[in-house]
Write a structure and sequence with these properties.
The protein is of the alpha+beta class. The protein has a single domain, classed as Alpha-Beta Plaits. 33% of the residues lie in helices and 30% in strands. A hairpin with a 2-residue loop joins strand 3 and strand 4. The longest helix is centred in the middle third of the chain and has 12 residues. The radius of gyration is 12 Å and the shape is globular. The N and C termini lie far apart (35 Å). The relative contact order is 0.23.
Length: 89
């Protein structure tokens, strides 16, 4: 398994569409394009380190854009606030 020396090597960039904006508002989720070889545990740890927020779950899938991770934050953290910090709006 590949080891990473930085969370920035796992989390490549946020993936923003109208659908992901709805996830953020209604389900407290953000979506990211991540390294193809990363696993859910590595993704969760990288998100927690980068954004200082607790991750509740990570779902991944691979499509034409690469590997996408949908990250659900625990209720005490706001995906909208995190989205504003990273410039999603």
């Amino acid at each position: 398994m590949k080891e990473y020396d930085s969370p920035h090597k796992i989390i490549l960039y946020p993936f923003v569409t109208e659908k992901t904006m709805n996830y953020m508002e209604k389900e407290n989720k953000l979506e990211f394009i991540v390294d193809l070889k990363s696993n859910k545990i590595q993704i969760a740890e990288a998100i927690e380190e980068l954004f200082d927020a607790k991750v509740e779950s990570v779902n991944t899938r691979i499509d034409k854009n690469g590997k996408r991770a949908t990250v659900k934050f625990s209720s005490e953290y706001s995906a909208e606030e995190i989205g504003m910090r990273i410039g999603v709006f």
